[in-house]
Amino acid sequence: MSGRGATARRLVVALPYLWLMLFFLAPFAIVLRIALSEVASAVPPYQPHFEGFSKLGEFLSGLDLGNFKTLLDDVLSGDSLYGASYLYSLRIAALTTLFALLIGYPLAYAMAVAPKRWQGALLVFVVLPFWTSFLIRVYAWMGILGPEGPLDKLLMGLGLTDEPLRLLNTEAAVLIGMVYSYLPFMVLPLFASLQKFDRSLLEAAADLGATPLTAFLTVTLPLSLPGILAGAALVFIPCVSEFVIPDLLGGPDTLMIGGVIWNEVFSNRDWPLASAIAIALLVVLVLPLVLLQRARVARERAA
Amino acid sequence: MSEAARTGAVPARKASPGSVRRAFQPWNDPAAKPLVSFRNVVKRFGNVTAVDDLSLSLYPREFFALLGPSGCGKTTLMRMLAGFETPDAGEILLDGVDITKVPPHRRPINMMFQSYALFPHLSVADNVAYGLRREGLPKPEITRRVEEMLALVKLDGLGKRRPDQLSGGQRQRVALARSLAKRPKLLLLDEPMAALDRKLREATQFELMDLQSELGLTFMVVTHDQDEAMTMADRMAVMSHGKLVQIGPPDVIYEAPATRYVAEFVGDINIIEGRVASVAGDLVTVESATAGTVELDEEAPSLKPGEAIFVGLRPEKITLSHDEPGQGVNKVAGEIWDIGYLGDFTMVQVMVGGEGGQLLKVALANRTRRIARPFAWEDKVWLSWDVEAGLVLPP
């Protein structure tokens, strides 16, 4: 192999790393640095400030884990706003993931078994909502779910309910908005995994005595597990820190962690605490994923 | 080939295949009850008729091969038997019971798929156990049967592997073990050897025949490979455009094909066009433009002088010589145009009837290792054959 080829190869490998360094690691380092600082009436509103390498020691000794300690004490105290909104975020994200899976799986399955010439069009329909602003779509849901909105009118017109449901500003409204917004992220990986699925395996299962339901549970479902996991991760992770949907469709009791961070930054001007919350969230989210991945790799190696 | 087969652990068939086959002819026994009967079955896809008013009976313990070019409807016929396709008309009986509308998972028929269709997420043992689990057998029984099946196909000790950790030949054996595990009344094999290389294919063909006679099962093989069908089958059917053109034991199909299509599809054959000159008892005399006068020993009382017919002549039944053969045989002079050396035999193409005549293929067995062969390009030669060699084919 020529030296030039090796250099070119290294460069190609280096590019994605460079990208991650610039746009993931560097911002993360900045947030971490703010999380280790303390509030100050200054611009930006925290200290210490970095004043050159000559005063690096002073700068570093000014950083501490105070915000994390505050956060931990608060969460451990039991009656904690932060703890409650963490848990609530996880709950909403879990429910959203569940509903997205229940709706998305049949949808993706139907798309995967549809004639090839329709699949392109169906795929376009799934991603079509992305062509409109996310905010506008959430506002539209405000209208639909609102008092005297079309949904209420329809249900009352059909005689299914006697009075308005008052869905807006409830948890149900938040869930509807979340499931609606994140459904494509579930459908796309599921579709990709179900489309690759070899249908002769279902014939083999039927041939060996499996009913259609058993064949689905023992063959289709396990083989689409990678798609399910990918879709669940793509929905769950952004849902935990979702801020706009609970803010617009939710009410006073649907405070998610994204809203808490927003409050800390813009109302309390406590950037360090907000950063600490954000990092704690990252740990809560990323740690299980890393462990899961490790377990999978270990299992694959064993097999 | 298997150790068991080599040491003679598998009886009867190996010792005298001919005699066993001759004795087993349930299709000629009016008292024999068929295991499977197709009755006037029709299957259409859009405006294509894949299976056209077809009737067929398979008998218990029979090894039946369905032979035909791709698109002839043979796979559709098999899929209807497995339950993956429903006939548009007619009925399919299994042991005298109409199973036309029975879904695949309730049929005591198993199939070995051409692609094998092994479950990639399950181990070899779990693949084999899949059908047994659906029956709800107790766990120890399942374990025992799986081990038995893996031993049967000589995959002992590979139960924990996954399909993607196996070779093509091993995967084929897993598929076979899986389809045999439920002890089906009838095993369907869809192009079972298509993905194997030639050596492995030959060994597997004999193993499959041993297995079938050992277990006393009924096999139906779909294949486009005539060697495979002829080697393994008790009886074979040649299919074309949704219809069975001829059904019979392989030697009958080869030596007495019913139509020109069958004659040309199974094996190599020279077709000579001609007109009947005379019929005297069993002796038919045919005048042809290319091969001159051809005499055939054929029971064909319906033939009339002047009728246009085809004479079929297998290449291995023709003798080649430099000198003109004596009286009393069919003979024609020609010139060698091409010699194809194929190892076990040599295929010589001879132009007969002069320039613009007809090329006839002659197969010469290479009985010696002599490199200098007696025939060369452009040699003037004589072709001769017995009166029993040729056969009359309806136009």
UniProtKB/TrEMBL annotation, chain A:
SUPFAM superfamilies named in the record: MetI-like
Pfam families: BPD_transp_1
InterPro entries in alphabetical order: MetI-like (IPR000515), MetI-like_sf (IPR035906)
Annotated ranges, domain ABC transmembrane type-1: 86-292
GO cellular component: plasma membrane
Alphabetical list of CDD domains matching this protein: TM_PBP2
Subcellular location: Cell membrane
Keywords for this protein: Cell membrane, Membrane, Transmembrane, Transmembrane helix, Transport
Transmembrane domains' residue ranges: 12-36, 86-108, 120-142, 172-192, 213-237, 271-292
GO terms, biological process: transmembrane transport
Membrane topology: Multi-pass membrane protein
Family membership noted in the UniProt record: Belongs to the binding-protein-dependent transport system permease family. CysTW subfamily.
The protein's name: ABC transporter permease subunit
Record organism: Bosea caraganae
